[in-house]
Structure formats: structure tokens, C-alpha cells
Amino acid sequence: MKYMQVETTGDGIMAVTIDCPKSRVNKVSSGLLGEISDLLDKIEKDVTLKGLVILSAKDDNFVVGADVDELSAMKKKEEVITYISKAHEVLARIEALPIPVVSVIHGNCLGGGLELTLVTDYRMASNSTKTVMGLPEVQLGLIPAAGGTQRLPRLIGLANALPLMLTGGNVRPKKALRLGLIDEIVMPFGMREAALKKAAELASNMGMVKAKKRSLKDAVINTLLEKTPQGRNIVFSKARAQVMRQTQGLYPAALAIISSVEFGLKHGVERGLKNDIRIFADLVMDGKSKALRSLFEGMTALKKNPLEKKVRPVEKMAVIGCGLMGHGIASVSTSLCDTILMKDVSLDAAAAGMKEISKGLAKRAKSGAIAPFDADAQYGKLVPCNDYSLFSKCGLVVEAVFEDIDLKRKILSEVEAVTDQDTIFASNTSALPISHIALGCKRPENVIGMHYFSPVPKMPLLEIITTEATADWVEATALEFGIRQGKTCIVVKDGPGFYTTRILVPLLNESMALVEEGADAKEIDTAMKLFGYPVGPITLVDELGIDVAAHVARGEIKKLFEARGLKASDGYTRLFEQGYKGRKNKKGFYLYDAPKKKGMFSFGRKNGGRPINTHVYDILGGERKSFDRGEIQDRLSLAMINEAVLCLQEGILSCARDGDIGAVFGLGFPPFTGGPFRYVDSVGAAAVVDRMKRLEETRGALYRPAELLVEMASKGKKFREKL
After folding, report:
1. Which of 399, 416, 463, 643 is catalytic?
2. Residues 339 and 474 in one domain
3. Is 297 among the residues known to form the active site?
4. Tens digit of each residue's pLDDT (9 = 90 or more) over 174-206
């Protein structure tokens, strides 16, 4: 067999080990489904078989879900229907087997992989930090269509199942056991033997599995909310309201999941499954799902380092500056190095950063993401210091101090004095050109930019900035280190603001211009959330810091825009001079003393409806007046999109894919569009140019379309041909 290995024990238990060839992971492909179907033909006829065990040969995954590449290659809805119908048929046959079926979960068990386990009689999972379970289809604009929407609510209850499907989040073994998603947790070693024994035990007991008792809380919820039509209506109504608050209705898959579950509970599993086939096929063909899948494909491609042969090991690293960014960078590196030096102006400052890392490690250990022993071991790698005496033999030094070029140059000079040609110096800067930081240094070839996003442990993007002098092994090593940190890395060329900050500045500048013209700050945020941004630009400035926005507005990037005849607003500077820093000092565009509220479902952070701090209008001037929502959306989105095209035109970006990934995962450009370049492709470059020229007439040079954009429009070409 190509996709599986099959072995039958002497007492009649068949072990089927899934092992998709030429792949690090097991995917539910048409090939795998066909092979399982052929095997079921034999199993159904074999009266000597007493039980079946399903395992994986992969080191860190059971089955990770559908083959996204195969799905994306399907051009017709009928192809999708054939594919998902085959999956339904295979799973139904496994579910109907007269012998007990045991699934053995180790590593990632996601999407179709979890749906496979739902048709088995007994699920055991390894007590491993690698093991997670989930239904992430909503993140690809899809529903869990291989039975997840129908079987999961019936297994663990509606109130437990909906949040899992609507967030696409993962659960670890201990929580999965509490929910009733699995039946047993076992040690990773000896899982096969334990599963074979369990299958034999179930066979001797006529395949009976004891029903797990639900907790009192779940029992009450089940009785009041899930067992009556009125109760279920309350659950579905609350779920829809929460999804609308979080997504503005822009993500059809989330609402489709709710409708699918509701339909199945009303009409039964069989009709529910048939309904899912139709919904799934429609969503696969939908442009939003295609865009989300393109992001997934881009992220997958960026996990590979094209320069891996030039990578040098980093056994010892140092982080200079142990504040929010510094200790965040160290926290995602503790599993990668033998030693991490935590340097700050004082040992107390370094210790404060280490304390935050300790909290993070403890939280991860409690969740099961790492073992308690590993948390202690990783914390033990941290060494506080207030000088450079221990910096010898450092493979990587990451500087994470304030955005002051003189300070960064001074630190670079000090590091070069105590290290040699094998040490990489990386600056975590959001806007200062790396070549300017490296000006006059001894080893410019060793200098690179590593722009992390805050908070570092949660934000997925890392922007790596190379200069003309950066050595290829330095780029290769920094890229490999970022990938191993779990980041999605894009490599861009040096320049003021690089890529992400550079395309953010026009959007923030126009946001301020709108406020100065009389627009209500909340109206601006609402407009951009309805366009698809997870947070509005005014909220974003408060989160980033008004002080940071003012600093960037005065820096090198200002010269870049002024050279093009663009005038930057001084609004952020005026606010900063009046003591406004945003959320960090609770003095920003919004008021931050209102208490937070939590609903029954926890699908994400609520906007909370914070009131505007109207004192900002006293500083910025002007009476408030209403603006057309479309005008706000065009002015802000097109300013960012055009700047992204200019970055590609100037060679800051190497490809449109990286521009899309950077804008979505670094700045929150609407994910369902696939990014600024894919957005242009879907709307049409000609239409975008036309909208920009109309804005240029009233708003000036900021909206002068990039030459590359005009060229794409005139030739009818796309930035990303595969749509």
C-alpha cells in the first residue's frame, strides 16, 4: 500500500498505520481515501477480525486535515462534492463496522483527522506536548464538513463544540479528556500496544464503551440549553450575535458553521451531513476561502529556508534591552539555545524581564504546551547581566532598545568590541534603516534587521531586513532562527520603514488627517472594521502608542514621503507633547477605565464600545462632522495598498506573496482578501487605479498610482496569477 501499513495480530486485531509518502504530515487526500475504501472492502468481508486500531507513522502528527493543495486545484463545485462525498462514505463505513475501532492520537490531530477519530469507538491520546486536537477549517473559510459539525456537538455538547469550531482553536489532551473528546490519556511510548489491548478488551465486551459522566455544569447546560428547541435557539442566537460582533459578517464560514449545526440538530445527522456537502462545496468555490487558503499556502511555503545550507548554529544568544520586546524575543528563543544573555542597564531591569519570561513558561507548562521540567530547564538558560563580559562566542545578539539611532549605533560598537566575525548583530527596529545603524561599524556584513511585532509570543510575523552588505550566511541564520521560533518570516530589503511600517504610515497619516478634518475617531474605526480590519486604525495607534507614532512620523520615513511631495500631519506629535501615549498610560483617543465584560462564548476580545476621549479634539481642533463610510475606507485602504505596490516596484519586496503575508499577519490587512496584492487582483487593477486617480484630484500626491500598478492595469495582468 502507498498510504498505509497494515498488520493483523494473532488475536484478530488489525493495526492500520497511516503514512502519507513524501510528506512530513498525513493529509486527507483522494489517494488516501481511495486506499482506505479498498481496505474497508476487505475488512467488511473478514469475519475473523475482532477489532481495528488506527495509528500514524509520523513523529508529530496523526492526520492534519484535508489536502489544501488538492482542494485549491479544484476548479468546479462538482469536484469538491465528489471529494467530500467520498470522505463521508469512508467515515460512515468505519462508523458502521461491527467491530470496535480505536484511534491513537499523537501530535497534531486537526480537521479531517479529528473527524476521523469521531467515528471511532474509543479515542486515546498521548500525554505529549506535541498532541493537540482541533477543527481549524473556519480559518480557511470552510466548515468541518466531514462530520465535525454533526458528530462533535453530540459528543461533547453544543456549548463546548461551537466555540471550538468557530475559533478554530486547539485543545490539549487534559482538556480534551474533560470535554469527553477523548477517552484516555496514555504515555507516548507503548501507545500501539495499549491500543491493541484496548481493542481486544472492547471486542470481548461486545464493543461496549462506558459513557462518561458529564460535569454538573455541563449537565445543567445540557438540560437547560441543549435538550429543548427553545434552549438551542438561545445558544444559536448568542453565537450568531457574537460572531457578527467579531467579524462584522465578513466571514461566511463562521455563520455557515452555526447554520450547519442548527440544521443537523433539527433534522438529524444524515440530513445534516448531506447539507454539509452542499455548504462545503459552495465555500471552497468562494473567493474569501480561496484568499484565506492562499495565506495558508504562503505560510506553509515560508516555513522552508531557501538558504538552509548556509545556516550556522546559534548555541548562545544575547538580548540587549529586557523590556516588553526584549523579554518577548528571549521567551520565544528559550528552546533554541543553550544560553541566553539578558542584558540591560541594571541587573534589576534584566531580572524584571526574566520574571516575565518565567510567568510565560509557567503558563505554557500549565496548559500542557511544554513539560514542567522543560519550563524549569528553559528558564535556567537565562543569564542576567549589565555588561558585556559574557558576550564572547555569542552566535546572535538581538538589540531591542528604544528607537534612537545614536543609541543603537553605540550598542553595535560595544558589541563588536567584545565579539568576533562569527557574531550576528540584529536590530529589532520598526523603522530605522539598518544601513544607517551599521554606518561606520567594523563588520557591516554581520548586521541585519529582525523586526518583531508586539506582543512577540503571540504575533506570528517576523520581518527580516537585509542591507546590500549583509552576508548570505547571516541572512540564512537569522531566517532559520526565526522559523524555529515559530514565526512566519518575510525577508525584505533595507529602507526607511522597510515594508510593514512603511505601508502603515500612510494609513495612520490619513487617519489623523480625517480626524483633523472633523471625522469622529470611532466612525473611522467602525468604517475600517467593516472593511475587514480586526481593529480600526485609531484603536491601533492607541495600542501601539501615540508616542511611537509621533517618533516614527518624525523619523527617516518622513523624509521618504516628503521627497515625493507628501505632507505628514503633526497631529500625533501634538498629542504626545500633551502627554498622550495611548493605552499604555490610559491617555489616548479612547478612555480605558470601563470594565470588560465576558459573554458565554469566548470567541475573541470584544471591542467593548469604549467611549472616545473628546479632549483629543480640543488639541486637534475642528468640529465633528459625518464622513461617507466609503470615502474613509478608500482613503485609508488605498493609501496602504499603493505603498505596498511601490515597495514591490522598488525591490523592497521580492514577491507579492510576501507583501500579502506581511500586511495581513503584521498589520491586520483584511485576511479574507488575501492581502493587498490579492485584493488588487480580485477587484481589478484598472478599478483600483481609477479610484486612486479620483482621490488624487482631491487629496494630492499620496494617491498617485504606482507605475507598476498602472502597468498592471493597462496590461490586464495580476500580481498573483493563481487565484
Report:
1. 463
2. yes
3. no
4. 999 999 999 999 999 999 999 999 999 999 985
